[in-house]
Inverse folding.
């Protein structure tokens, strides 16, 4: 683990766009623009291998990451097994497995 | 046809897309229509809009296409002439205008359109009080007139677009969906990115209802090529700060967290409202709206209480311009068929 800040930040109870740091989100959107096409359908979470055992919600995690709450989900990101099922079901062709990978890399960098 | 019937014209009430399409069809069927328009200018909403969804075609161009053939055929358009009422007459139909003038026609197509929801009724959005809150109709008019909005690009960092203003809202008495505002919001979001490339644009919606051909594609284009952000949440309130910026509050329902944000200006996607005319229909709509009710039986959808009056366009309920035009054509044809059936008797 290269960074500790992610663990120390609890998931906030409010999204205050003015105050959040959007740099990680902007970077993610640059590197994997397909995530802009997400319609929030929940298919990725529905199929996710990790979801039933760990309560991991990939849709919510990547949505909140895009809102600028990158640091809050470091522990969550560990739950992904990179099986890629999420990418296979997405009706909008979002490469979510890569979104997962990038979120981890961006935070750990 | 009896001589009595042929000597009178067919009236078209309203010169919006529905009325103009009806007049063109009547002309093609060999009738000489006369058009009554209550405003000073013709075209209905076409005369006020800028570029139309989904293909960004200029509204003025479409209006010209509709009016050109009518001008050529010397179809009379009486502007500043509001039709008040109509009743059966031995010649067919007696039409009375607001100034008390009476005209006999053998039949009519009624295409009186809709009015925009008055956004001041949604007090929590501050329209009319906050100078940086506009309506979708304001934006169309400003763009059609000057090609720009009264905000300096250097000052605009965030733009908010609020869906469902005056629609799907029991609080204002309109429970129905206005149908075109979602796609109009997607179109205006793209126009905002074209005008303010460095600004972020946020659309706040309850559901995205993008039913028409090319609409879903325009939504994808807005997300992907124009980086428009779509946030699922109905905005609960707007407040103006000292600099005139707008503080927005909603819930980001896809993350399940309340959200707030400061916006430089806001566009309210106002819905459509109808008006009842008792001489056309006494029936109430099941959704409680004031649009003119018509037989929802697939085959008689242009009929009114008067057999020689057909109804068309957005006066029946929210519609796109193509819907309104097609309905105008259909009403013209239905009237033509009715007149022929009467003449054969
Ligand atoms: C902000 C906004 C943007 C839109 N943009 C688009 C778009 O890009 N593409 C699209 O397809 N649709 C668009 N629409 C929808 C479009 O405006 C309607 O589909 C269209 O105007 C309906 O045409 P109409 O002829 O039925 O009614 P209207 O355009 O409302 O015309 C009715 C006419 O009848 C006249 N009239 C009313 N009562 C009387 C009377 N008693 N006597 C005489 N005359 C009368 C009115 O003055 C008016 O001229 C938009 C709507 C809004 C609110
Ligand atoms: S790659 Fe990760 S997020 Fe996607 S389905 Fe597999 S475990 Fe879930
Ligand atoms: S499956 Fe695709 S569109 Fe649906 S929520 Fe997941 S990323 Fe978004
Ligand atoms: S079309 Fe969209 S914005 Fe308009 S009322 Fe329906 S859901 Fe709301």
């Amino acid at each position: 683990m290269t960074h500790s800040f992610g663990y120390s930040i609890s998931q906030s109870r409010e999204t205050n766009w003015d105050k959040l740091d959007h740099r990680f989100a902007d970077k993610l959107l640059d590197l994997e623009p397909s995530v802009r096409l997400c319609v929030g359908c929940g298919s990725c979470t529905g199929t996710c291998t990790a979801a039933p055992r760990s309560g991991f919600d990939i849709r919510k995690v990547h949505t909140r990451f895009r809102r600028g709450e990158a640091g809050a989900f470091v522990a969550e990101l560990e739950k992904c097994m990179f099986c890629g099922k999420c990418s296979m079901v997405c009706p909008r062709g979002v490469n979510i497995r890569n979104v997962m990978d990038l979120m981890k890399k961006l935070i750990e960098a | 046809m009896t001589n009595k019937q042929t000597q009178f014209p067919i009236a078209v009430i309203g010169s919006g897309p529905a009325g103009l399409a009806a007049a063109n069809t009547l002309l093609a069927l060999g009738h000489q229509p006369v058009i009554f328009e209550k405003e000073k200018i013709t075209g209905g909403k076409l005369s006020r809009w800028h570029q139309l969804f989904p293909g960004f075609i200029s509204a003025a161009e479409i209006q010209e296409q509709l009016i050109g053939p009518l001008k050529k055929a010397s179809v009379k358009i009486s502007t500043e002439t509001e039709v008040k009422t109509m009743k059966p007459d031995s010649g067919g139909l007696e039409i009375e205008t607001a100034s008390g003038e009476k005209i006999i026609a053998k039949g009519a197509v009624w295409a009186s359109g809709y009015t925009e929801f008055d956004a001041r009724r949604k007090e929590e959005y501050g329209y009319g009080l906050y100078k940086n809150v506009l309506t979708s109709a304001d934006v169309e008019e400003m763009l059609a007139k000057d090609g720009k909005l009264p905000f300096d690009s250097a000052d605009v960092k965030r733009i908010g677009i609020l869906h469902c203003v005056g629609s799907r809202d029991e609080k204002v008495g309109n429970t129905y969906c206005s149908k075109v505002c979602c796609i109009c919001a997607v179109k205006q979001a793209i126009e905002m990115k074209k005008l303010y490339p460095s600004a972020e644009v946020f659309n706040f919606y309850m559901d995205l209802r993008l039913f028409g051909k090319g609409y879903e594609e325009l939504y994808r284009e807005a997300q992907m090529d124009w980086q428009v952000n779509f946030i699922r949440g109905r905005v609960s309130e707007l407040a103006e700060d000292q600099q005139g910026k707008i503080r927005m509050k909603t819930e980001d329902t896809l993350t399940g967290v309340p959200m707030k944000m400061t916006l430089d200006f806001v566009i309210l996607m106002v819905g459509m409202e109808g008006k009842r005319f008792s001489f056309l229909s006494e029936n109430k709509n099941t959704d409680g709206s004031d649009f003119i009710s018509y037989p929802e039986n697939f085959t008689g959808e242009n009929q009114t209480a008067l057999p020689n009056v057909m109804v068309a366009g957005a006066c029946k309920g929210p519609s796109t311009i193509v819907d309104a035009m097609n309905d105008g054509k259909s009403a013209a044809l239905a009237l033509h068929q009715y007149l022929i059936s009467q003449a054969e008797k």
The beta strands of chain A are 15-16. The mean pLDDT of chain A is 89. Residues A 38-44, 59, 89-92, 94, 96 surround iron/sulfur cluster (ligand 3) (CB under 6 Å).
